[in-house]
Specification:
- The chain is built from two helices and three strands.
- By secondary structure, it is an alpha+beta fold.
- It has one domain.
- A three-stranded antiparallel sheet has the order 1-2-3.
- The radius of gyration is 12 Å and the shape is globular.
Length: 64
């Protein structure tokens, strides 16, 4: 399974405000998709620092 680190703009409501978070694009069964469970976890802890999010992506990327 391959992965790529990308930055996503996540909108929580219709107020046009967004959170920019690093995310993983993964390839699974020939389809490319965002690693949704990780993104939901990051949204839950969006108050954490950018460094924390980058280290999280790095740690999860090592599992692939």
């Amino acid at each position: 399974m391959n992965y790529v680190k990308v930055y996503t703009k996540t909108y929580r409501d219709n107020s046009a405000r967004y959170i920019e978070l690093p995310s993983l694009l993964i390839e699974q069964d020939g389809e490319t998709q965002i690693f949704g469970q990780l993104l939901r976890y990051q949204i839950k802890y969006s108050h954490k620092s950018r460094t924390w999010h980058n280290k999280l992506i790095q740690a999860v990327g090592l599992l692939f």
